[in-house]
Design goal:
The chain is of the alpha+beta class. It folds into two domains: 41 residues; 60 residues, SH3 type barrels (Roll). It is built from three helices and five strands, in the order αβββββαα. The N and C termini lie far apart (91 Å).
Length: 137
């Protein structure tokens, strides 16, 4: 009797492992198909982010190769698996708007108002301290 329960337990475990493996394969195939459908629906000019963090504009799709355009107009070829996000706005879109605002307001600022790296001009007290350091005593 004890051997039968052991065999039944092993059969149940193998069946459970096979079932989880097949359901995972089905889920991965479904996600892969959704990704293919999503890439097929992408229009040229939409922003695309790769898994390594590169943002580019979608140009063309040729099988598993995707052509993305950089901001300076160069085209780069990426494998379909490297695409992480379609649509959205790259983080640099805000800085482009800020740059246009800064150039519009550039006439209002003067050189005296600007600081280099956020540092103020040093004072004589900073460089010429009359008191010796404790190590020099």
């Amino acid at each position: 009797m004890n051997n039968y329960t052991l065999v039944i337990l092993i059969v149940v475990m193998v069946a459970f492992m096979w079932w989880t493996s097949s359901s995972r394969k089905k889920q991965m195939a479904k996600m892969e198909q959704e990704k293919r459908d999503q890439l097929a629906a992408v229009k040229p000019g939409e922003w695309v982010r790769t898994r390594v963090g590169f943002w580019g504009r979608f140009v063309d799709l040729d099988g598993d190769i995707i052509v993305l355009e950089t901001t300076d107009g160069h085209e780069m070829y990426w494998e379909r698996e490297m695409i992480a996000e379609i649509g959205g706005q790259p983080p640099l879109a805000d800085t482009e708007q800020k740059d246009t605002l800064e150039t519009a307001g550039a006439d209002e600022t003067t050189d005296e108002d600007e600081t280099v790296l956020g540092l103020d001009e040093p004072t004589n007290d900073d460089f010429f301290n009359n008191e010796p350091d404790e190590q020099q005593k």
